[in-house]
UniProtKB/TrEMBL annotation:
The gene is rpe. InterPro entries: Aldolase_TIM, Ribul_P_3_epim, Ribul_P_3_epim-like, RibuloseP-bd_barrel. The active site is at 35 (proton acceptor), 179 (proton donor). The keyword Transferase does not apply. Its EC number is 5.1.3.1. This is Ribulose-phosphate 3-epimerase. It catalyses: D-ribulose 5-phosphate = D-xylulose 5-phosphate. Gene3D superfamilies: Aldolase class I. The lineage of its organism: Bacteria, Pseudomonadati, Pseudomonadota, Betaproteobacteria, Neisseriales. Belongs to the ribulose-phosphate 3-epimerase family. Its cofactor is a divalent metal cation; Co(2+); Mn(2+); Fe(2+).
Amino acid sequence: MNYRIAPSILAADFARLGEEVAAVTAAGADLIHFDVMDNHYVPNLSFGPMVCSAIKPHTMLPIDVHLMVEPVDGMIQAFIAAGADIITFHPEASRHVHRSLALIKDAGLQAGLVLNPASPIYLLENVLEQLDMVLLMSVNPGFGGQKFIPATLDKIRRVRQLLDAYQAESGRRIALEIDGGISPTNIAAAAQAGADTFVAGSAIFGQADYVAVITEMRAQLAAISR
Ligand code: DX5
Ligand code: ZN
C-alpha cells in the first residue's frame, strides 16, 4: 500500500512558513496540506492563494489545497493560478458541485470532495468519475488541534467500500484522505479502516523533530497488514 503523509501547515510557524514547508519536505512528507479558511464557511481565517504561490518555491511536493470557503469557484480559479496540484472543497459550499469539479479537472489538476463528520456519503455517488480524492473530516472543519472523532473509522470503511466498488468497475483508484486529530497513535487504525492519505497538523508541527514524527507514523503504517 502506498501511504501518503500530508503535514497541514496550518499548524506551522507562519512567521517562518517557507522554512517550515522546506523542513517537512526534507523530513519525508508526501504532500503539503494547505487549509484555506474564510470566516464564512468556517469560523476561522487562514491564508489564500498569494501564500500558496509564496510557498511553492520552497517544496517540490504537490500542494494539497483544502478549501473551506463559500462560494468555491472563484477560489478554485485563484488556486489553479497559484500553483495548486490538488484542490478539494466541501460540496455544501458549492451551488453546482459538478461544475466546480469540472473547473479543477479541466485545468489538469486533481480534484476531490470533502465530507464533514455529519455529511452523508451519498454526496459522492454521482460524481465519482470526476474525483481523484475523497477527504473525510475526522473533526469539524475550522481549527487544528481538535480531537479525532472515533465514529469516523466506520465512515472510512463505508467510503472505502464505495471507492473499491468503483475501482472494480472502472479500474481507477480514488485516494481516501483523512483529516483531523491524526497522530502516530491512531494513524494505523485509520489506515486499517481504509484511508491511504493522512493529514497531520499539530502532531507534526507541535514536535521539535519532524523527521521523528513522520518516521514514527511510517513505522505505524508499516506494522499493519490490511
Ligand atoms: C481543520 C483542517 C485540518 C487541520 C488538521 O479544519 O482541515 O487540516 O489543520 O490539524 P490537526 O492535525 O492538528 O487536527
Ligand atoms: Zn485540512
